[in-house]
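FAQ: What does a ligand-bound record look like?

Like this one, built around zinc ion:
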Amino acid sequence: MEVPQFDCQPRLSEPMTEFTFETDAQHAPYNYAHLVDDRSHCYHRFDVDPAYDDGVVDPETGRRDAPPDFGARRRAIVEFYGHRCGRCATRVDTGSADHGEVAYLFSVADDAADSWALRQLVAVCEPCYDLLSTDCADQIGGFGDAYRRAPQFPAWTGDPRVAVERLPLTGREVWFRDRLSDRVAVEPPAGESVNAAAAREACLARSTPAAVAVALNEVLLADERGPLSTANRRLSDRWDALSEREQSEYERCAVDAETVVGGGFEPCVDLQRA
Ligand SMILES: [Zn+2]
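The answer part, i.e. the structure of the complex:
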């Protein structure tokens, strides 16, 4: 029987072992493709007017709205991201929901004046959009509880700028995160991570560097899909085998999304201090 760790603190600073990427980009801590691939040809191909890269400002209210060629931008970006969510890689589409989640555009621009430029836009599914766009000053619930469906960890194939880890919302997620972090051996790049701005903005995101966040997802997938042996049970089976009391202790460490936003900032801040 495993001795449960009941501390709520992330353990990212501990030595990491076991993990290596089995991809072509063995030395890349995350996927660089969406950062370096040129998007300028998309303007012509999808009939996007660069003059609208900064959106449209209403002269009366001063509010910045979506550009009139929003639909074309959305088609361009969804195509550019291969009809996959830039965070979790689930299938997204601009048409009916039959072809995947409805695609949203998330802007990673620092400056509002550049927020609709194609290089600043990421195609994301509704749950990931809800996660990324819910900032600490807002009320959660703009999309119901769609954020709960956003996977805890971002996919390696996505865009590292939005590769944020979601706060654990259940005891199971707290326990999984603890176990998985022991298996990750990735040195995040020096300095601020490429996902830092998105992580700061999103109330339900942790400050985990992109390199570590995608590595956590890789070890989760390896655990779910790797070969089974009696000595090495899957995490889901090990969680199920915990006693009710042990599970409820982890439940206590999970984040209550309502209190993160509803005035109680402490859980948010504490857990983000990775
Ligand atoms: Zn997604």
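Follow-up question: can I read anything off the structure? Yes, for example: The pocket of zinc ion is lined by residues 85, 87-88, 90, 124-125, 127-128 (CB under 6 Å).
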